[in-house]
Structure formats: structure tokens, C-alpha cells
Design goal:
It is a single chain. This protein is an alpha/beta fold. The protein folds into four domains: 205 residues, Thiamin diphosphate (ThDP)-binding fold, Pyr/PP domains (Rossmann fold); 161 residues, Rossmann fold, CATH 3.40.50.1220; 188 residues, 3-Layer(aba) Sandwich (Rossmann fold), CATH 3.40.50.970; 31 residues, no CATH class. Helices cover 36% and strands 18% of the residues. The protein is built from 24 helices and 23 strands. Strands 5-4-6-7-9-8 form a six-stranded parallel sheet, sandwiched between helices. Helix 8 packs across helix 14 and helix 11 packs antiparallel against helix 15. The radius of gyration is 25 Å and the shape is globular.
């Protein structure tokens, strides 16, 4: 400590970590650190200084050693999602490629509006040893480096060039990460020399601080406009997005729907906002949705979008709705609230729905409208029941989903991403409890599944260690990123992982064929440079990383294996081959705009292009 009683001499790295260790939040009445710890891979760019600081705070801020920087970022994003953005994790990487490996994870967090703190090594501020290991040299811009690439994929970016700067920058970064409207990743470039430079920091900077997530009430005039529009509705509908959960507003959503007799559909991020048997839950909407939700979307006259950014898979590339339908968008973020000429209600979903409900008074949608929606949902439920039934056709994703759904605990958490599984889980999963589904489709990022499962499990162990995190992953994503099986074993964070092997990138092969193209370079068997297709032994591979594992031949065997996985004390991997051609959910799809060739010599591609474009007439043109 400095001779002056109101300051303390610390390095920049020591000050950053000491500050983080003294930031708190209250969740469910329990005070806890807002930073749940971090994920780190050390290199020359962060081990001497930041590593020293983290060691001294290893009890307060536990550090999980990752196997890949990108997967560390995925784990941090999944942790934040599971914690409903009330807590975050940091990731630390060395300079150069260690840091650039985090770019994809930062983009995922940015797209999904998730908090994540990135503490990454940077070049020497003095430039005395230039050029240094892993430095990119820009001949006319010596200050430009790879860390500048993070400006495009973070909500807050700073390069610390003097130790005193963190006094302003760290609080601003936390304010950004905890803000409902601006939430996203924050990045700090930490020059290797500056990390070790010392400064006499005011002790007040390290005093314990209790954070709160801001709840901004909506403008009274916007509420009034929304009330007037909604009261005129004869066929209203609610689209419930992931923001409903982040606002802790699932109870208010259910109450609002019941009070005003309005059917609710869920986005992919909003899955598990309502239970499957809630009478107002009409199913998932959009490209990977349900016949029931898409039916009422096409007929609704007023649509209340709550906590959703109205991504193309939700809107069917803006063909899912009647062109005359009017939108009310309740969102903490102004950017999302005003999309497609929505009547904006900018504010917290929990407060806004409560206020809107009060002002609506006795308004209720016609019974025949809700009855029509519920009738459609009943038909959809019957379809799903048949679709997931074991033995109904060759092995399929849907069958595996049905097995897990029937045998899991209601509070188990299901994680999947990218490929074909988001569509299959979204369409076929029957929600058993609120907030138990994580389908990463905001950035549709392969490789998130197992890493995200690890991060989810770390979060789950804080409150529900007796429940399971269940990962559904295809063979393509598994091969892209699987090393966190080893991480989960090392850290005793048990996962149940279902590897559903369809011999390549089968869902893109399906799109390839649906657009008239020949199967090429997606399924292993269709790669012309592959001399001998080889079936991966996923069971043996998982065993090599310390997990329990087995292979099964069908969904009946899967059920018995899943019971063994539930009883296991450590990560358990189950592998099953599924049919790449005949295993897909065929119902429930809305149109999706993809680029198809306008000119081609291939007749099947030309015909597919004409067929694909035939639905464009239903597309809303941004109004």
C-alpha cells in the first residue's frame, strides 16, 4: 500500500482483477459476484502479469483452463445465457492467434446480446521490441493490430495505454454488459508492458459495489398508442422472444395472455417461455416452427412482439404475416423496438406488459380466435407425437429428441446449436419447465454445443447441481469442436452428450438438394476428394478424453443408454447414427429467403429457383 492511506500501488493487471472481485449483484435474494470467474489459456501475452493477478484471486474468481479460445468464449456465452444475463464470465487469451480465436465467440455473444468480458494481450505500447512475436505489421498504421478486429463484434472496446485508464473504462464496460438495451461483449486490449506498469490507485475504486439490472419503464404515450391499437384487434397474437426470460417476465407473459385471451408463439430464443401444456402456448413460429404458430401468424391483425429482434427465422423472411398486420414491439433496445414500422414500446418487458395489461382493462380477444389457435396447436401436438415416436421410420433427430424429452428431469437443461438440430429441437421439444432450453441460433454457430454445454453446466452447478445439462450435437459440429468433453471431465462438470451421426453436414445437403443442386461436399460420401469414407468411432474418441461412452443402434437402445447416462457421475457420451435423408421434420416450415441462381444451365436448379421465388409475393417490404 502507498504511504498515503487513500491509495494502493498495483499493476494494471492486478487492479483489473481486484476490481472485478469486488463487483456484486443480488440474485434470488442472494448476494454474489457478478463475475462468475473466467476461462483462460495463457501465453506470453498474458501469463506474466495477468496470470500473476489471477493466481492471487483464484478463490474469488475461479479460472477454468480451456482447450481452445473459441470454445472458451462459447462457454462464457452459455454461462451468461443460463444466468439470464445477470452474471458474466471473462475470457483471457494471449496475443495474436490466441486472441483472434475469440472473434467468433465475440460475434456470437454480440448477436445474442450476451455479456462477456475479453481480456486479451496486445502489442507493447512502447514499441521498443517491435516487431514482436505474432505481431501483424501495417506499414502505414503502426497502431493497427488484430485486436482492432474486435471493434466490429463487441459493444465496448478499449485498448489500455495507461494504468489510470481502467478507473474510467472498467465501470463503463460493466455498465454496458449489464444494460438491457446495450448488453453484449466488452473487450480490453492489454499491451504486454502496460499490464505490468504500476499506478497508485484510489482505494475507493476497489470498494465493494452492488449492481442492479436496470428496468426502464416505457413512455406513457407509447403505452397509450399500443393500448389503442391492441383494443382494435380481432385476431391479436404475441411473439415471445428470449428477452422475456432476460427480463424475468415469464409469469407476466403468461398472465397477460390469460387475462386478455391472446395466443402466444415462441421464437427460437424464446423457447421455454411457456410450458408445453399452457393453453395459450400455440407453438414455435417461423422457418423452423410449427403449423399451428405459422397458421395464426398468417391471420393475425395485431402482433405484439416481446423481447425479440424479429430475425428471419422468426418472420419467415417477412412472409409469415398478413401484409396488413400491424406490429407492437416491446423491447428494452430502441433498435429492436422500431423494426418494420412497429409501434415501439421501448422499455423493460416485465414493466411494459404489466402496464399495458392494466391500461387494456377488460379487453379480451374473441373466444373463437383463441379456439382456432388451440385447435391448430392440438393438431400440431398430434403430429409431433407421431414424429418423435421410436421406430416410426429410420433413425432420426426427432426420435432422439422424443426419447430425451420423455426421460429427462423437468429442470434438466437442453443445449444445441447450428445444423439441423435447432430446427428439430425447436419444432419437437415439449417444454417441461421454464427456461430450460438453449438453442443457439442467433449466430447459428457450429461448435457451440459441447462448449456451451460446459458453460451451462458451470452455471447450473451453482443452483441445481443435481440436474443435468444435455447436449444434442451432430457429427459435423462434434468434429469441429469437441475438446470440452475433456474440460468437463477435468472440472467434474458432468454433461450428457448425444452425438447424432448423419455422415456429414446433412442439413446443408438437404438445402443443397432443395435448391435443385446435386449433393456435393456436404455428406462425406459425396466429397469427390475423399478416397475412402470412414465412420468415426465417437465412443472410442469420447473414452479417450475420459468420458463414459457407448454406441446405440436405435431409439429403443438410446432410451436405456440415456438412463445409464443419468445415473453416471461423470460426462457420458452416447453415439447413434441417424438417416441423413429420411429423418427430417417435414411440417411446420415457413419460407426462408436464400440466394438461388437467376441464371443456370442446370434445369433442376432453374426449376427450384422459380419455385423458391414464388413465395416472394408474400414478403413485407420493410414496412
Amino acid at each position: 500500500m502507498n504511504s498515503q492511506s487513500d491509495t494502493v500501488s498495483l499493476t494494471t493487471a492486478q487492479a483489473i482483477i481486484r476490481y472485478l472481485a469486488n463487483q456484486f449483484i443480488v440474485i434470488d435474494g442472494v448476494e454474489q459476484r457478478v463475475c462468475g470467474g473466467g476461462f483462460g489459456i495463457f501465453g506470453h501475452g498474458n501469463v506474466p502479469c495477468l496470470g500473476e493477478a489471477l493466481y492471487e484471486h483464484r478463490e474469488q474468481l475461479p479460472l477454468y483452463r480451456g482447450q481452445n479460445e473459441q470454445s472458451m468464449g462459447f462457454a462464457a456465452a452459455a454461462f451468461a445465457k443460463a444466468k439470464l444475463r445477470q452474471k458474466f464470465m471473462f475470457c483471457t487469451a494471449s496475443a495474436g492467434p490466441g486472441t483472434t480465436n475469440l472473434l467468433t465467440a465475440a460475434a456470437l455473444a454480440h448477436a445474442n446480446r450476451l455479456p462477456m468480458l475479453l481480456l486479451c494481450g496486445d502489442g507493447f505500447l512502447t514499441r521498443l521490441p517491435d516487431p514482436v512475436l505474432q505481431q501483424l505489421e501495417h506499414y502505414t498504421n503502426p497502431g493497427l493490430g488484430v485486436n482492432d478486429a474486435f471493434k466490429a463484434v463487441t459493444r465496448y472496446w478499449d485498448r489500455i495505454t495507461h494504468p489510470a485508464q481502467i478507473i474510467q473504462s472498467l465501470p463503463n464496460a460493466l455498465a454496458t454488459m449489464l444494460d438491457p438495451a446495450d448488453c453484449g461483449p466488452a473487450f480490453f486490449g492489454l499491451p504486454q508492458d502496460v499490464q505490468g506498469w504500476s499506478y497508485d490507485y484510489p482505494l475507493a475504486f476497489f470498494e465493494k459495489k452492488l449492481h442492479r439490472i436496470r428496468r426502464s419503464p416505457a413512455d406513457a404515450r407509447e403505452i397509450s398508442d399500443a393500448v389503442n391499437l391492441l383494443k382494435s384487434a380481432e385476431r391479436p397474437m404475441i411473439i415471445a422472444g428470449g428477452g422475456v426470460q432476460y427480463s424475468l417476465a415469464t409469469d407476466e407473459l403468461a398472465a397477460f395472455a390469460k387475462t386478455h385471451n391472446i395466443p402466444v408463439v415462441e421464437t427460437i430464443a424464446g423457447r421455454a417461455n411457456l410450458l408445453a401444456d399452457d393453453p395459450y402456448n400455440i407453438g414455435p413460429i417461423g422457418v423452423t416452427g410449427s403449423n399451428s404458430a405459422n397458421h395464426i401468424a398468417s391471420k393475425a391483425d395485431v402482433i405484439v412482439a416481446v423481447g425479440t429482434r424479429l430475425q428471419d427465422f422468426t418472420t419467415g423472411s417477412w412472409t409469415a404475416f398478413d401484409k396488413k398486420a400491424q406490429f407492437i414491439s416491446i423491447n428494452a433496445a430502441r433498435h429492436d423496438a422500431g423494426k418494420h414500422k412497429s409501434l415501439p414500446v421501448v422499455g423493460d418487458a416485465k414493466l411494459a406488459m404489466t402496464c399495458l395489461s392494466k391500461e387494456l382493462d377488460a379487453y379480451a380477444a374473441p373466444e373463437n380466435w383463441l379456439g382456432e389457435a388451440q385447435s391448430e396447436r392440438k393438431q400440431w401436438d398430434e403430429y409431433v407425437s407421431g414424429n418423435v415416436r421410436p421406430g416410426n421410420r429410420p433413425n432420426s433427430y426427432a426420435q432422439a429428441i422424443g426419447v430425451v424429452n420423455d426421460l429427462c428431469d423437468s429442470r434438466d437443461r437442453v443445449v444445441t446449436a447450428a445444423g439441423g438440430l435447432p430446427a428439430e429441437v425447436t419444432a419437437n421439444w415439449r417444454t417441461l419447465d421454464i427456461g430450460t432450453v438453449d438453442v443457439e441460433f442467433g449466430f447459428s454457430c457450429m461448435g457451440y454445443e459441447i462448449a456451451g454445454g460446459w458453460g451451462s453446466r458451470i452455471a447450473q452447478c451453482e443452483t441445481e447441481p443435481d440436474k443435468d445439462t444435455i447436449v444434442l450435437v451432430g457429427d459435423g459440429s462434434y468434429l469441429l469442436m469437441n475438446s470440452d468433453i475433456y474440460s468437463s471431465v477435468l472440472t467434474n462438470k458432468k454433461l450428457i452428450i448425444l452425438v447424432l451421426d448423419n455422415g456429414g453436414f446433412a442439413v446443408i445437403n438437404k438445402l443443397q438438394k432443395n435448391t435443385g443442386n446435386a449433393s456435393y461436399n456436404n455428406l462425406i460420401e459425396d466429397c469427390n476428394l475423399v478416397t475412402e469414407p470412414y465412420v468415426i468411432d465417437f465412443e472410442a474418441h469420447a473414452h479417450s478424453m475420459g468420458a463414459n461412452a457407448e454406441s446405440v443402434s436405435n431409439s429403443f437402445e438410446l432410451a436405456e443408454a440415456f438412463k445409464r447416462a443419468k445415473a453416471s457421475s461423470k460426462t457420458y457420451v452416447i453415439s447413434m447414427q441417424v438417416d441423413p435423408h429420411d429423418g427430417w421434420t417435414e411440417e411446420g416450415h415457413a419460407w426462408w429467403e436464400v440466394g438461388t441462381p437467376h441464371v443456370t444451365d442446370n434445369e433442376s436448379v432453374r426449376e427450384a429457383h422459380i419455385e423458391w421465388e414464388s413465395s416472394r409475393s408474400k414478403q413485407r417490404k420493410g414496412i
